[in-house]
Design goal:
The protein is an all-alpha fold and 124 residues long. It has three helices and no strands. It has a domain of 80 residues. This is Lipoprotein.
Length: 124
Amino acid sequence: MKISLIKIAVIAALPVATAGCANKSDQIAASFVSPTMYSGLSCRQLATEAQSVANRAAQAAAAQDKKADNDALAAGVATVLFWPALFMIKGDGAQAGEVARLKGEMQAIENANMQKNCNIRFRR
């Protein structure tokens, strides 16, 4: 009987423990950035800006994914072994905001690219 009560407690605590966890970068929606911000750039300048934003976005996504992995690990440890580990869960913060902003910038650059018929190819 004890074992099943422990299992029930662990299962019940898991959603609570993971609720405050940071999201993976692919789960973060883009913030709106107006394409008019890039309307004055030439196609060459747009391509350069796209590469720069893509590099920063990749770095921000990697940092966010690491944060999400650390939170998930802390939640797992807290649920199974040591409840004070719940205090190690940081959740989304400035890093998630940076990911959202950079995703928005990429969308704005893509929109400006289409408006100017620059034919810049973007990888997904």
